[in-house]
Amino acid sequence: MKQLTTLAALFALLAIQACSSPPPEQSAVAPSSEPIPATLDNPASVKMQTFILRGEVVLGPDVSSLTPCDSNNQYWLDLSPELKQQARAVAHQPYQALYGEVIGYLMPPSQTGFNGDYTARFVVQQINQLSAENPQRCQHPSRPTRAFGTEPFWSIQFTPQGLEFQPLGGDKQHFMIENSQLSTQQRHYQFPEGQLSLVRAVCSDNMSDTLYSWRSTLTLSATTYQGCATLSNVDTTQTWAGTYFASASDQRGFGVTLELNADHSAITRYRYLSGERELVEKGYWQQLNPKQVQVVMTHHQQQYLLSERIYTRDGFQLHADKEKIGHQVYPISEGGLTLFQAKSVTDEQATFHRPTLNDRPQSIPSRGDYDEQVDQAIKRYFALHKTAPSHVHYRWLKYDLNGNQTPELLVQLDWCQQDQCTLLIFEQKAGEWRFNSRINQVATPFQLGKLAHHGWQDLMLPLRRDQQTQHYQLAYNGISYPVTTRGAQPAQTTQISGVTLFADGLAPKSGVKL
Question: Please, are residues 335 and 321 in contact by the beta-carbon 8 Å criterion?
């Protein structure tokens, strides 16, 4: 009864009183190439995106848990009977500490049972690796996808240039991948000197108490190498991690702070102008798509509570207009809750001191040759947006758009209307290309602006309007470039730099076939 009283007070603060039925929302048909936004009113639209967690794994007859690296938080580990049997073959005794990398998604704990005291359940879809040899591997840096074997010792890993092969006692060799075929169960890569195949299957290297989920076969000249493989252990959803806040106001007599932590735990704090005791909720977060994050609170003031919000990102802001408590969806009062991300002084200074470009001509042509890392980045983008590309071609280039001395990847797809095609932008994070922006209907060549917003150079895109072609300024909003040029302002000649991208103007149809 005490819990219901607490919840009733919270409803009064956050939600409008629920009517017999909420007003119907305007329906809109989203473009087939865009992900359908997740909404609490439509549970089918809330689709979990898998990600990787690594840390200390403990397996026992009754309890299995994961403590992420650099965290004191624990998640209940939800393993299928098949995966549980594979994992227990690694441990020499129950509740032995193991190092693990698991791929899956988070779900709420049950109100009763062994997992009820945990923040969340991590539902494991795949074990990347599980080792009893050294449970302290959190201190090791993240690694790219790699294959390796012990008879003889060899390893091969992905690099920005392609593949790097290291035989025992020999010199490193580098290969440029010419073709690849990927699926959930197999990955095949071809290069002039041979081929690398990864097949989803239980694997052990026979030299350590370590379990892997991929077997590898490397054919190099006349030699065939057998071994295991691991996928990259980088969590690509970490761009959401941070602290967000909303200050108290006369209309809303409390402030809100939301902490999205690197271990995927989440904390919401409510601070009241009246001096009442601070309310604290704890739970978890996970990305649903590049623009939306699911935040689920599972404990309110240490009592079991299940509440969910879906925040949509706009620059440095998160906005949620509804909250689901139990099985009931409520609108949040005053048009919803908007939170602002707290930025560090270092980030602000870096943005403020972004150097400007000048008029010196610099033409960057596009490339139409195959690059493994580029191809993988595009395929990950399609997988993330649950799109099955068919006969897609693209051209690409690299250029440093944000002045961090590391070039971004710009890819133009042959999704075109006349001469205007879709542009994708990726940035380098932890050795991998991570999707940053998508801009529809971009004509090439285009130029960069002399100034920057949030540290990223303005894009000056040529558009034909009112029978005239003019450059329009597309500014970075703190998270990405806008998806369309709608609302873009005409650019003055004095604002345009001498840097021209995709200077050759070649159509993406003439580039690489995905």
Answer: yes
